[in-house]
UniProtKB/TrEMBL annotation:
MOSC domain ranges (all copies): 2-142
Protein name: MOSC domain protein
Gene3D superfamilies linked to this entry: PK beta-barrel domain-like (2.40.33.20)
Species whose genome carries this gene: Sinorhizobium americanum
Example of a GO MF term: molybdenum ion binding
Stored PROSITE patterns: MOSC
Alphabetized UniProt keyword annotations: Plasmid
């Protein structure tokens, strides 16, 4: 995982060069909408502070650790499910909230991370209009 100065999103495929774009992601063989995934920075901060949801659990996850494509701030992602929105030159459609998997616990060696991410593991989106996105691009809702 690496931070990019810009990413090229391809409609119906994903982010050029991403493991799911290439078909090599852990869940690539399982059909689902995951052209691009988002997660809230506020979730990462809550995990670092400790959550009453999982007693005594704390975890520090940097944006390059969480295995989602985009890290957002100030946007409650669950409010976007079923909606379309712009990011940079692109138009995304929020399909569903992401489900955490036990694989991330194994990969990062953080027991309890699965439980800590339940119901806030990110947002799976389809790319309807491709284009370039860059850090700092706002997320703008599209009225249907």
């Amino acid at each position: 995982m690496e931070e990019l100065k810009e990413a090229h999103l391809i409609a119906g495929r994903g982010i050029a060069g991403d493991r799911y774009y290439l078909g090599t992601g852990t869940y690539s063989p399982k059909p689902d909408v995951r052209d691009v995934t988002l997660i809230e920075m506020e979730v990462l901060e809550a995990l670092a502070q400790g959550e009453p949801k999982v007693p005594a659990f704390k975890a520090t996850l940097a944006p390059e650790d969480h295995r989602r494509n985009l890290t957002t701030r100030g946007v409650p992602l669950n409010h976007l499910v079923g909606k379309r929105f712009r990011v940079g030159e692109t138009v995304l459609r929020a399909a569903r909230m992401n489900f955490p998997c036990r694989y991330i616990e194994e990969l990062l060696g953080i027991p309890g991370l699965y439980q800590g991410l339940l119901n806030r593991s990110g947002l799976n989106c389809a790319i309807e209009v491709g284009g370039v996105i860059r850090p700092g691009d706002p997320i703008l809702p599209i009225e249907d």
